[in-house]
Amino acid sequence: MSDTQKAFDALTEELARTKGAEKAQMFGKQCMKYRGNGFMAFFDGDIVLKLSGQSREDALRLEGSRLWDPSGQGRAMKEWVQIPAAHEAKWENLAMKAIEYISTLPQK
């Protein structure tokens, strides 16, 4: 298991314990949901977060970050930002921003 996978797993455990987030699958990838809405996934060693507004813009400014294209066919998802492992120290804070955003959406 890679160090980034371990970091992601530790973050999922923390968010499950402290925020009531739930482990799930999305596009065949390990993800987390809050109130039934996906907000975080692990993809190619990077974290992927559903963000909006300034949080999304701040995440996209991180070197190597980009909109997530899970299919790899040029169909990036506008609210999902893929953030490289080089920014692992920022993952928890950004995950909290994702939960804040998800909290504004209708529960599924």
Mean pLDDT: 94
CATH class: Alpha Beta
The appropriate CATH architecture is Alpha-Beta Complex
> Given the structure, what is the number of helices?
3
Biggest sheet record: 6 strands, antiparallel
Strand content: 25-35%
**How are the strands of the biggest sheet laid out side by side?**
1-2-3-4-6-5
- From the N-terminal CA to the C-terminal CA, the straight-line distance is 32 Å
Helix content: 25-40%
Low-pLDDT residue intervals, each spanning 5 or more residues: none
Q: How many separate structural domains?
A: 1
**Estimated radius of gyration:** 13 Å
Total number of beta strands: 6
What general form does the structure show? globular
Structural description of this entry:
With 108 residues, this protein is α+β, with helices and mostly antiparallel strands. It has a single domain, classed as Aspartate Aminotransferase, domain 1 (Alpha-Beta Complex). It contains 3 helices and 6 strands; from the N terminus they run αββββαββα. It has helices spanning 3-19, 53-61, 91-102, and strands at residues 22-26, 29-34, 37-43, 46-50, 66-68, 77-83. Strand 3 (37-43) and strand 4 form a beta hairpin. 30% of the residues are buried.
